[in-house]
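dumping this here before i forget
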Amino acid sequence: MSTPQPRPAVAPMPVAPAVAATPARSGPSAPAAPYGGSPVPYESPIPIVRAHLGHALRAEWTKIRSVRSTLWTLGVFVLLVVGIGIVFAVAVGDRMGRDDRVTLFAFPGLLLGTICLLTLGVLVISSEYGTGLIRPTLTAAPRRDRVLAAKFLVFSAISFVAVLVSTGVVATATAAFAPAEADLHWGRPALLASLYVSLLGMFALAMGTMLRHSAGAIAAMLGVYFLPTILPLFLVGIDATKDFGQKMMEYSAPSALSLLLSPDQDGNGLPQLGFLAVVTAAVVGSAFAVLHRRDV
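structure:
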């Protein structure tokens, strides 16, 4: 019979200390909820500001002045208006009549320079469609009418000031080349011409909004700008379309700008300015409707 051996003593297992229940957190910086209470809602440390049109205007102004195409198109516009205006004044300044105004010297440059502003008007929004920037823009600012209104306001102000300053520089610099009997007052004609070109630019911006393609919208605007000048050359030769061709020529951009800069017995350009304002308002309204209903 064997002698029973004593069993080795078993060390007691360590017992983990009781851990207090961790309160639920609603966010990384949310304060702990009191025991037995509901979590405190998260509050962002960033101040919440209600967006308004001023923020959209500031954003659009920052974008349009930081884009290189804006400086190029405006620089070429000023160069064309001022350069051609001075050359035109030196060449034909002594042939001006008593009823002509010194602002007429800016007319040839404005005819060409307006193409630059039409291009810039299209690029204000069509470039965002080309680069895809329009998606984050409308995500950050869901009010599409506010975004588009900011674009119209900023661009129309820029184009208006550019035309007014360029025309004023031409009228001031070329006054010495005009005969003594010429009218040297340039304020009102320059304001009306600036308004007319700004409306054309807004027309271009609305066209870019609807077409969403830079090349297509610029081509369409060149047709709108030049067709009323070229098409009447064929229409006036046909008896059935002669009156329509003459009326189209009367309301074309060259005829309107020449009358606004130097009124004569054929008119003062105000009917042409009013007609363009009505047409531009209709196109701009269509652009707002299209941007509101269409997906980006």
